[in-house]
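Homework help board

Subject: predicted structure for assignment chain

Our instructor gave us this sequence and asked us to write out the predicted structure in token form, then describe one feature. I got the tokens but I'm not sure how to describe them. Can anyone check?
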Amino acid sequence: MRRFRLHEHPAKVTAFVPHYAMSGGTLICLAANEIVMSSHAVLGPFDPQLGQSPAASLIKVVEQKPIERIDDETLILADVGRKAIEQVRKSVRELLQGRVSEEKAEELSHKLSEGTWTHDYPISAAEAKAMGLNASTNIPAEILELLSLYPQPMRTQGGGVEYLPIPRQRQTSNRSQP
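My token output:
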């Protein structure tokens, strides 16, 4: 049974990625027939995170450390992590069914879910295409124009990503040279 309604849509579905589609955003892109990104846009892995820890890293701790030296909470989280990774793999295989070979779907389900990279690793359109995804950088100018009508509020705390539609200008001093 499919759990992704977007994947079941009878018409062609295009995911436009003007800036970034990380983690769950990448899963949404996999549900589409094609992924159209701007030249600087990125996707990201969707490896499960449990609190502050990647599921794959918790599993690695349990595999490498003697069990008597591992606290119960880590053992529980590693068990949940194994289940979460398998659930994500299954979802990816379902989403890619009929779009790539079964072998490619299996490969991608592992690569994107088990901590191959850090959770914030940027996957360019070229890398996505090399992985076998139907990705291009032919984003229509109208999509970018539409987004310019909805400026994002500036964050004062917490970091994150700030999209600048034009290159940042260096500040120059108004002082005269001696």
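Reply (TA_rk): Your tokens look well-formed. For the description, you could write something like this. The chain has a mean pLDDT of 87. That's the kind of observation they're looking for.
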